[in-house]
Amino acid sequence: MAVAGIAGTPQLPLEQLKFAEEAAKRRHPDGAQQFQELHFSDSDRLCSLVDDIFADHAALDKRPLPIASGGHTKFLIMGAGMGGILNAIKLIQAGFKQDDIVLIEVGGGIGGTWYWNRYPGLHCDVESYCYLPMLEETGYVPSCKYTSAVEIRNYLEQLVEKFGLEGRILYRTQVSSLQWDEDTKSWKIDMTMGHGEGGKEKSTVWVNADIAILAGGIFPHPHVPKVPGLVGFRGEMFHTSRWDYRVTGGTSEDVFPEMTRLEGKRVGYVGTGATAIQAIPELAKYAKELYVFQRTPSQVNPRGQKPTDPVEWHERIASGPGWQKSRMENLAQHISRNLPEGTVNMVGDEWSRLPAYCAIIGSERFTSLTPDKIHECLAQLQTWDAPHNAAARARVASLVNDTATAEKLTPWYPTWCKRPTFSDTYLQTFNRPNVHLVDTDGKGIHQITPTSIIANGQEYPIDILILSTGYRSPAYASGDPSARLGVEILGRDGVRMSDKWSAKGACTLHGVFTNGFPNLFFHGGAQASATANVNHTLEVQNTHIAAIISRFHTPPSGKGDGEKKVVIEPSVEAEEAWAMRCLAGASMFSSLAVCTPGYITSEGDALKYGSQEEMVKKGRGSIWAGGLVPFERVLEGWRAEGFEGVVGGEA
């Protein structure tokens, strides 16, 4: 629960003053309303930017469906990205059958973010030995330290095949609502399914499920700024979440595609976040002129990519049972600063050496923070961050030849305010004569004409417009799962989940289920935990969800006992007690108050406070303040002690 207006520390007055000045330039009264989600745009052209251009619709039309309209399944998992796939595997490992499970996927293939994101040069920014799930179980050896999107997508397809889930996925299907039926003790799920040419033909279907699991990801909705003239641009235009190789040339199956259709073209690229860091160096190889429009520069750290060494893999990485869990936890604990000085750093990358990123993911060093100690916490974080931050700024000056360009590429904000980026090529790209940085000094672009972008009062003629403008914040609607996914959820007595969240703030037990919505589980950040490695958070949450389900719903033994109905939900008392525990640690995240606006703060909306009641509502949604590994230990202890606070059993 952040407190606005915290002053800088006496030891770092000039740096903190610069941070404050730069943040002020970027604050906008409209906050997140500066943007529009493409899925919900009134413009047909903007809506078309999120069409599925990767699906083989003819092949999908021939696939047998895992469930027919009006059918019934034990488990319905909404999403076939990494979270949904992992959830299904955890259920199978708990003893449930593949035929008990149906996954609903809006795309034409599996992978979630790795299905949609196919921009050139894309690799995971977390070490692949920690990021790719279930390496120990599969024996798979990633090709390099930071795996490409192509390899990740192929690996996930192998996982689906290995665990017999290939025929259990309903593709091109969007869930619109879930309604709890108290009489049947099941969820009625209404959906729209695409088919035919381009998947444009739509039919409404519905199914019943005993247990529903929301695994739609944290960034389901790409957005673009509300810039005058955007719809009227006459050239080719696309969002980086749907990279259009028909425009650029190349193919999404190549890590470094040959984008020969850009030759002779003037390309306007809007945005300089984590996507841009990887895509811009590749674009620069082919475009005649590349104009990069920047609102806020990224902090760009060294990457250190290298191929996997077989000897190192067998002797130091995959060296014994439990190696991947140990490695994931070692990385998370280093980022949270939860380990004693001198503890072995297994990963040894830049993530593990960020001294103050714990400000955004939690640390045991600050779990007992009281409001009167907030200033001391911030001072400590700033002190830890100062050397790293200064080195990151100096790196820009050392790699970019033009002094004026280097100054514009220099980030001025604490490291924790935006997701740090990692590249050994991005900054150097601005030394190329065909690459032009258009820094808007925090204002963003002003207007788009049919043939150009206007920024800083100057017109830049372009042929192709690429929008690298990100996604709606995961903190939208206080982390309400139904709002985040754009699904109406009606629980017991017809209560809307959005109404419950609006009235009370986040209401969960351990961030994965909520009272009044029986047999419904979800992923998310509110009242759960986080780390840089998103797969680690999914591993923890999916393990927990599968454990709760199997504790109260014994898998069928083959003796006719598989059809017993169960109802699982937390008690009101248990979820309120959990909310208070999360609220008690919320003071640590006051460090966000000094941040420049971005998705982490919902463009500054998360720092706007009204009444004391509103502050408490926001504070309830805080993540676990101690970091992901201590959070996991709490969950393990809770399970060992008997799942206290769960109302569950046969209906």
UniProtKB/TrEMBL annotation:
**Which keywords are on file for this protein?**
FAD, Flavoprotein, NADP, Oxidoreductase
Keyword ATP-binding recorded: no
The record's annotation in InterPro entries points to:
FAD-binding_Monooxygenases, FAD/NAD-bd_sf, Flavin_mOase-like
Q: Which residues form a coiled coil?
A: none
Required cofactors, per record? FAD
The organism sits in which domain of life?
Eukaryota
For molecular function, the Gene Ontology terms on record are: flavin adenine dinucleotide binding; N,N-dimethylaniline monooxygenase activity; NADP binding
Q: Does the keyword Lyase apply?
A: no
Pfam families linked to this entry? FMO-like
Which family does the record claim for this protein? Belongs to the FAD-binding monooxygenase family.
Protein name per Swiss-Prot or TrEMBL: FAD/NAD(P)-binding domain-containing protein
